[in-house]
Amino acid sequence: MDLDSIVKHPLSLDLYCFGEGHFEKHHITSISQIAPFLNQENKFWLNITDLENMDLLEEIKNLFDIHSMTIEDILNNQERPKVEIFDHFILIVVKMLYTRNGIEDLETEQVSFVFGKNYILTFQEHSFDIFDSIRARLENPTSKIRKHGTDYFVYALLDAIVSEYYTLLEKVTDKIEMLEEVIVSEEKRVKLSEIYNQRKSIQQLKKVIWPTRELLSIIKKSDSFLIKRRTLPFINDIYEQTVEIIENLEMQRESITTLVEIYMTNISLKQNEVMKTLTIIATIFIPLTFLAGVYGMNFHFMPELKWKFGYYLVWGIFIATAVIMAFYFKRRKWF
Predict the structure, then answer these.
(1) Beta-carbon count within 10 A of 116 CB
(2) If you average pLDDT over every residue of the chain, what do you get?
(3) Which of 74, 130, 144, 232 has the smallest count of CB within 10 Å of its CB?
(4) DSSP-derived pairing of the beta strands 119-124 and 106-115
């Protein structure tokens, strides 16, 4: 990506300074405003929601001694979830999933974390996020998030993202169960596209969660001084959650396959019913067609041809034949 080609306009920066017994929130527009917080014992979280002002990003890179390739990874919104461990900071790239209009309209946003000993930098593509619970915890004086280090704070951010994966998984599961009930009960017609939309959602979730599990595994095994031993059980807990989500996604994918089979079976049964009805109607009309063909030959010496009740007799035969055959099919429970 050519960094110089990106349009420049002001960044929006939310700065949270916190520690045990301490909390401040600032909205800043200049990197120079961070300077007073750099040498404090307290930690701070800088949330960046606009990645298009390269001057300010360059200042951030210089201030925190971030490698230029790291900035490129942050700006590349097609980056695969990953973790890169450096001497004095760690980069984590994850995908945040959420929906505003139903599970069929999943939105994916890349979120990057850069954290060191006393700072956490988060880079988002948009201002909307799922971190309101983190902000609320920061304002709580008794919250663990204030007492522990930056690694615990990153754990809290990752936990919020993975928890949203769970929420989306539940929505997919509920939708699949609803579709199954509707298909089986035949209360209303279900389009095949509705089923495949759920399959698409499952694939999208799996595409994001699988590499997220891998990066959590790397963090678990890391010997970086930034990852404290007491934080590892929490990281392991998120790792196990991702494993569970992936297993559930596999189950839901199998459910989708079963749902398609049920759908196609129902369609086949309905077609069979239609064919059965058409066959019965055709069968009833076969002898009637035969009789009509015989009496339509117009031979000169045909019996009943000049009889004045012949027309009514033929109609009587037609009706009686149709009634007898329909009664026979009904007795055999063919319809």
Answers:
(1) 17
(2) 83
(3) 144
(4) antiparallel
